[in-house]
Amino acid sequence: MFARFPSLAWAGLLALGLQATQVAAISKISAVGSKFFTADGDQFFVKGVAYQLTDNDPLVDTAQCKLDAALMKELGANTIRVYHVDPTEDHDGCMSAFESAGIYLFVDLETFDSSISQSNPYWNSTQLKAYEAVLDTFHDYDNLAGVLIGNEVLTMTNGSWAAPYVKAAARDVKAYRDSKGYRKIPVGYAAADIASLRPMLQDYLACSANSSENIDFYSLNAYEWCGDNTYSGSGYSMLQKNATGYSVPIFFSETGCNSAPPRTFQDQNAIFGPEMSDTWSGAIIYEWIEEANKYGLISYGPSLAATAAATATDIVGGFTRRGTPTPISPDFSNLKSVWKTLTPSGVKLSEYTASVSSITPLACPASTSGGWEVDPSSPLPTLDQTATAAGSGSTGTSGSGSGNGSGSGTAGSTGAASTSSGAAAPGARAPMATIFAQGTASAAFVAYSALVGFTGFMAWWL
Q1: Would you call the peptide bond into 373 cis, given omega within 30 degrees of 0 as the criterion?
Q2: Transmembrane stretches, by residue range (predicted)?
Q3: 349: left (phi over 0), alpha (psi -120 to 50) or beta
Q4: Per-residue model confidence (pLDDT) at position 312
Q5: Which of 98, 111, 121, 186 is geometrically suited to a Cys-Cys bond with 216, CB 3.0 to 4.6 A?
Q6: DSSP code per residue over 233-263
């Protein structure tokens, strides 16, 4: 019956089918020992950018995501970090756009009203349900690299009393993940760079003999390397010393000091070079969009006076929040040039697996009066438990080296940078309706499967 169709038509169908089979899904990320690996067995290094265009969810505007993903791919980025999302929205279009560009996502589970408080630590069912909702929404995306259960919760010298609640959140999110049968999506924490809390917090979050209580990765918001600095002068050598022997992956969840512009991103040479790449799994640069803090890698248009911005569409704080991304010179090209030269191969999973069983958590830090005040023998808080002791923390000191870090730009930051990922700004735009409706992905998969099957038959028949 097939003989009546022109051979040219068959060739066209065959070519289309073969093209479809060549579009491989992105390889899922997992945490194994102290490193990230793709499902293909390659070690994964984070080359990322912080992506929060407004306080609203940036992963619902498919058209904008496609524009940004294309330029991020040119930059050399393979990861974004998003601080706030709305689990009730449709994210298929944006997640597909970033996946097509080879870009993964680390997403914070907390919202403005569900984050863990340092001044009054507690962990309750309402918070857990909010975290679960975000995980439920994103778990099925292959390019979800990991989730964060907190961002800079501890920012005080004596703020350690909140640490057990952070660890309890990781425990319960991991338990929920496993109870739902989701893949082992890494669950981690992003810490403020407070010298008086390092490395105690870092070790504490991963020190339990019971791995179900430990974070799956640890990340640090650090702005120590500023301008023309060095590996030792910046304090990075101390960060490396503190991280040596760490039992889970560790990376920079924010970096890119701008106190000595233009930014040349010299720290990336250390992070991805022989000094640190065997311990650290990469870095996320702060941030994608240009704002008043001057950390942006791109701009969507010139800044506007407050009077003009008051009634303009997609303007917050005098800065346009969507449109065609234009690189900020020379920061964008500087980062692109640096990243292009840094391609650590790491270790293959097949070679690394044999050594994983020998990796053991570092010892839990001992409690010290007036400093790290967490008893390592105390059990973690139970769900719905609130701290009973009064906190007596004072503002901590950021950084450990001579680099004068300007601090993180995210909510709860100890530094001066201000960003859309902080408190909600008045007049923030409502999310644009996504282009893809719910169910499009599954329908496309059915069509794709049929096409692949048909193509295989035709390849055999011809």
Answers
A1: no
A2: 441-461
A3: alpha
A4: 66
A5: 186
A6: TTTHHHHHHHHTT-SS-EEEEEE---SSSSP
User: Amino acid identity, residue 453?
Assistant: G
Calculate the alpha carbon distances from 94 to 20, 77, 78, 274, 285 in Å.
20, 16, 15, 35, 20
pLDDT (0 to 100) of residue 429: 25
Catalytic residue chosen out of the listed positions 99, 152, 291, 373: 152
User: Which tokens go with 248?
Assistant: 């889970």
Say which of 254, 290, 291, 373 is annotated catalytic.
254
- Structure-block tokens of residue 303: 């800044």
Q: Name residues whose C-beta falls within 8 Å of residue 85's C-beta, 6 or more positions apart in sequence.
A: 57, 58, 59, 91, 107, 108, 134, 137, 138
In angstroms, the CA 224 to CA 241 distance is 15
275 catalytic? Reply is no
Q: Token pair 């010393």 is at which residue?
A: 241
DSSP class of residue 231 equals T
Look up the pTM and report it: 0.82
> How many CB atoms lie under 10 A from the CB of residue 212?
11
Structural domains in the chain, CATH included, are 34-436 (3.20.20.80)
Give the residue ranges of the chain where pLDDT is below 70. 1-24, 305-312, 389-462
Q: What is the pLDDT of residue 296?
A: 98
Active site residue 152: yes
Whole-number percent of the chain with pLDDT over 70: 77
For 342-367, b/e burial (b = at least 16 CB within 10 A) is: bebebbebeebeeeeeeeebbebbee
Q: Supply the pLDDT for residue 167.
A: 98
